[in-house]
Amino acid sequence: MTALRQLGTVVVALVALAGLWALLLVAFDVSSFVGKSPLDVGQYLFAEQPARGIRPASLTAAQARADGLAALVTTLGNAAIGFVSGMAIATAIAI
Fold first, then answer.
1. Based on the number of CB atoms within 10 Å of its own CB, is 50 exposed (0-12), middle (13-18) or buried (19 or more)?
2. Which residues, at least 6 apart from 25, have a Cβ–Cβ distance to it below 8 Å?
3. What distance in Å separates the CA atoms of residue 61 and residue 46, rounded to the nearest whole number?
4. Among residues 23, 56, 51, which one has the least CA distance to residue 37?
């Protein structure tokens, strides 16, 4: 029962986050060219035939996911370098 409750909590949190995301796009009148909705992102990553303007026709869903993962790895590497550098400098200053 505990695992089911945890899963329910995660699902509710994700739905609330997606709802807030979509609401803020509407509230601030963000252009669909700049701000994509959660459904647009889902279509970009998973739909074989997304709506027009979501993803180039030459790019498959698998390629889009691979590109996103590669960008995530690069970003996490850069963040790790910055974190370690900052901690080293802070430690050196504190000593």
1. buried
2. 35, 37
3. 5
4. 23
The amino acid that residue 46 corresponds to is F
Q: What are 28-48's pLDDT values in tens digits? A: 999 999 999 999 999 999 999
CA dihedral of residues 67, 73, 75, 78 (deg, nearest 10): -140
Is the pLDDT at 20 greater than 90, yes or no?
yes
Structure-block tokens of residue 2? 């505990």
Q: Rounded to an integer, what distance in angstroms lies between the CA atom of residue 15 and that of residue 19?
A: 6
**Burial of 74: CB neighbours in 10 Å, binned 0-12, 13-18, 19+:** exposed
Average pLDDT over residues 37-63: 93
31's enclosing H/E stretch is none
